[in-house]
Amino acid sequence: MKDDVYLYNHARWEALAQANALFTRPRLDLDRESARDYLALDRLGIAGELTGKKVLCLASGGGQQSAAFGLLGAVVTVFDISASQLERDRAAAEHYGYEASLVQGDMRDLSCFDNDSFDIVWHPYSLTFVPDARDVFREVSRIVKTGGIYHLMCANPFFAGLTHQAWNGEGYLLNLPYEDGTITSYPDQEWVYDQSRAKIQEPVEYRQTLSRIMNGLIREGFILTYIDEIKGNDPEALPGSWGHFTDVAPPWLEYTWLYLPNVLKNAGTAG
What we know:
alpha/beta
């Protein structure tokens, strides 16, 4: 599905990988304990042994989450739009001595995977890079096993496109309509990559309202078991700084969903 959305995201993430951006640097300093802490599995309610569990790191290239799951004994597959990102996952697997399956593609099309392929689908921040989250949810519901876990981290839809640069002296000004598909863009934070060495096109993101996310997943047969608003924790941060902004307007949401379509069907709620 190499439409304009695919081509833009592919070009941007190839450029970020070449610039050694923060999200493209493999985690090569983990052990089993720190791997579990890094994934925050206990906080998310994901208990038990992961050895042998089939995990898909979805739109998750860079050798970070895949490294943690590999160390914990999972059977790891990484799916990402960027071949350069997947090379980081290959490097992490070689560093730690586990095997990983690496697949390049668009998260809206997971037809390369069979039905009921994975126990866990782990999806870090990337959902807003596509116009309609429901395209992804349909694919995930097909490939995750009944009783399987879908972990999703995405933009807080209420603050999509807003950064600390929106400070007007009194607060952070919201000025975009709260509608599905509203296009947002903003400069990369200075800590993402060395902007003195590279200049990369800004992200193009699409607002996914909370109702689209929640209802889209419920209709596919998912049940919510955990949600968190990820925010800053710096009471000394100055107004107009990134730290202050993230304390006032939590930029990210994190969910754990269980795929239990029969439960919802029997309850008469799965439209």
